[in-house]
Amino acid sequence: MTTLFHTRIKNINVNQSLSFFLLFIINIATAQINVRADKPVALPVLNNSSVKIDPAKGYLVSEIKDKVYYVTDGIYQMMFIVTSDGVVAVDAPPSIGNNILLAIKEVTDQPVKYVIYSHSHPDHIGSASLYPATAQYISSTTSADELKKHNEGKSQIPFGAFVGGKPVPQPTKVFKDSFTLNAGNRIIKILHTHQSAHSADDLIIFLPKEKIVMAVDIIFPGWVPFEQVAYAQNIDGYLELHKFLLNLDFDTLVAGHWSRLGTKQDITDNMNYINDIISALQEGFAKVDFGSTVSKVNTSNINLMMETYFDAVAKYASDKVELKWKDKLSGSDVWTYSHARKLLSFVRESGVSMNMPK
């Protein structure tokens, strides 16, 4: 995996944003297994999957509604809200970096007064030190504890080492339950489901009047999720978060990744796609015969036997789901197998019957 990814990078020119992203993926991907490398050519990207960004500028800043903006470099997204009391910034991806400040300056001279951390992962907040030290930094208690550990150097890997970020300002306003930020003329509700999903604590930033919601690393509008179900820590919590979002009254979703905004339909599509993989895995466990599947390998190697069987079940599920979704979501041919491998243990531990020798 390391050789494959590094070879590809040497042969292409990438901008700074993509370089940060690829470095992040390389360092995570090298620790992963079962990533299929037998499909170097993917299906064409679907028309509804992205928006155009001026490559010379390197980012897009676009008004969603009533002075609520999002900024994207095509890989990451952040959101900011212009209020009569200053700017509220949500996240600070290092891939966008200083362009965040340039984007804000394009539309207002107001200073950044509030910074909200959607969660504690450095690829989304690692450039927060760009904001004024006098701003109020807001997060959940769980994320604040995570950041304190990172900022104090108690992690094995320095915070943001792979994505170009660095230690960020410690939150100055933390909360256990939901919190409402009244900034000037704006009401901003910061919600969470009280269980882990993608991360230990994923916040939902909700503007009820403007009908805008920001939820990061859950939905990838127009695309299947990032590999391994977007590295979800808790599959039950990940699926529940979909239902939580669908119960909110909103029109526009800022999802934190890729270039375009989302809607409730994107949430429904993602939930249905993941549930299709779960159903296909259940079917695969019932239909893929263990004995005949492992008969061609060295049966004295238990690990190899189990890997061969699990691979076959995941391949059964991914082939079925890819066929259904290839014309609906971009990337289904690239990462459905990865999602199937991630979800395989979730399904197996749910008590599914396996087609084992009698």
TrEMBL record:
Pfam families with a match to the protein in the record: Lactamase_B
SMART domains: Lactamase_B
Family annotation (InterPro entries): Metallo-B-lactamas, NDM-1-like, RibonucZ/Hydroxyglut_hydro
Domain Metallo-beta-lactamase: from-to ranges: 75-257
Protein name per its UniProtKB record: MBL fold metallo-hydrolase
Source organism of the structure: Flavobacterium psychroterrae
